[in-house]
Amino acid sequence: MSAYLISMATYVGFFMILAIALNLQWGMTGMVNFGIAGFYALGAYSSGLLTVKAGWPVGFAMPAAAVVGIAAGALVALLSIRLREDFLAIVTLGFGELIRLIALNEDEITEGPRGLKIDARPFADMFDRTTYPIVYLAMVLAVVALAFFIAERIRRSPMGRSLRAIREDDVVAEVLGKNVLRHRVQVFAIGAGFMGAAGALYAHYVQNISPEVFMPMVAIFIWMSVIVGGAGNNWGLLLGAGIVMAILEGSRFMGDFIDFLDAEKLSAIRVILIGVLLIIILRVRPRGLMPEPRFRYGRSPGGGSSTADAQS
Amino acid sequence: MSRNITRRTVLKSGAATFAAATMAPAILRAADDINVGSLTPNTGGGGPFGPKITASHKRVVELVNSQGGVLGRQINLTQENSETNPESAVRAADKLINVNGVIGILGTWSSSVTLGIMPKCQEAGVIQMCTSSSADIPVRDEKGLVFNFQALSPVWGRAIASLALRRGFNTFNLMALNNDFTRSMMDGFVEIVGADKVMIDPFYYNGNQSSYRSEVSQLIESNPDAVFIPSYVTDFTAVYKEIFRQGYEGQVITVSISTGSKFKEAVGEAANGIIHGLPVPPISSEAYRQYVEEAELEQMDGVQHPFGTAGRDQMSTLLLAVEKAGTTDTAQVAKAMWDVTTGEGKKTVYNITDGLAAIRAGEEINYSGASSSVEFDAEGMVLGRDFQLAEIKGGADVVIERLEY
Fold it and tell me: How far apart are CA B368 and CA B350, in angstroms?
């Protein structure tokens, strides 16, 4: 049982990193990214291939995956020079599919639909089979903490205010002398780097990745996490990621309690339940469980966001 | 909306609910039960087949439990949905292994799911039983814990090709959905018909496309006698509509999993004339006759439940192997799998009741199943399965030929 909880906590960790990244891009800056699965896959395959095919030690391959994510994120963000945000949504969706299709079809490199088997795991020789999952969880949580720290620092900094200005109206931000393009590229690249890192962590955890893992459904779960938790609020989406995973996984246990549900009915009910809960949460808490604090004028930049959602 | 939900209350109640939900079944469960997991594709690409596998698993377990169980212990079956998706299936497998403490995970269907959960199962020493065709399955099973009840895809390709050759076709073109199941099938097909009879290089298409116009044009441009299209029902429906629209007059050959009732409903009369094949249960066998009775089906000429029958055989052989090994230690149970299924000069049994009785009487048994005679090679892959080629006539499948092993 505890092994299962540790494992689920690890998956929640992956979701949290992705959610923090999406919050940077969309929650704070207003850049819609439907291509989460693509960046996630890019990180997973980069790290996986570097260890399996290029023989890199896993300690280098995983950070390299984050770097690949940053580079890809910057490239995609550059497209936003001439694209308004709705078009960026389509471009990122396309990017996600592109990565998946490359992984599927370039089978001489990626092993295609057979899936890539990854033996390498960080620090695997130093711990035994029972303690290793805890070590891995600690590693994932460390990355969550790092991503959270960076995201929170950005949010509280002058850059964070510029980002919110861009989100609300990029023309006004531009008129006020903010370098909109630079900010967008920076933030999108940082977010994509987080996603790449999450992908690498995922790949070495499950040790078998195939293109089918990175369907657009992954992106939907992360969007759910951010929306349920509260866009713009980093604390909220940690909660959101936990809730989404708790619903996804917790609903599995219904069958253990309710005898008359056979496996087929249960499968359908689980999917329905996830949708219904999302609707309820959005109906009752339209801005998420922990909404972004309203910006107040006349406060110091650092503490300006500490007030609760008095106006919501 | 006056009540304020704080972070702490939510975290607390969330953690409490999650813990309660996950702990309870472990407490409710009797400690002495033998735990077995079933992970079937109840939704997604395998949706038409998963529920039948699930039902078969359940029937065998209920029957055994009503007769006093195995080794004097009751069987506790936990069923999960793989959603035909490895991402979700890995988490389901995690639950089965770590919460339910299963000795085996039975019923995975898609190769990517079987391969996806394999690292976890191998690490935990859990037996896997599947109906997946990827040639990678025996290669990656390092501990000898995987038993496959389906013929590997090259075998499908070879069987369909030899049946097609007998129909007198001379030139072929091939395209396949790009997944692991269909890929090695094309190699097997080309091997039998000979590369010189294939007009253009076989190629792959990606699933979930809105149009297959260019792929289909490429496929039929050189006007071959027949085209072979290994696929899933989800994409084959669209592909076939396009073939029909472009007016191809040759023979369309595919795998039977693509031409189920959903396909026939979708394309109507246009489906007539398609030839399709798949490994089938030995229709004349005693075990298949019993399966038809157990599943309350009507006896008919065509094959029913190609995967449901495998579900019956998976659960039956696993439990027989447990009884034979006298323990639930998976390494020993896996070894006993060959003892109860493979080898000559043993007493043939067709169901679990007779099998258990024979083992308890000290006899050596060879289980002969509803999906095949269930003989395994050294790698745990099932040896010969019957193969059937059918043609759609008047909206129904008419068997043209059957290869028996």
Answer: 5
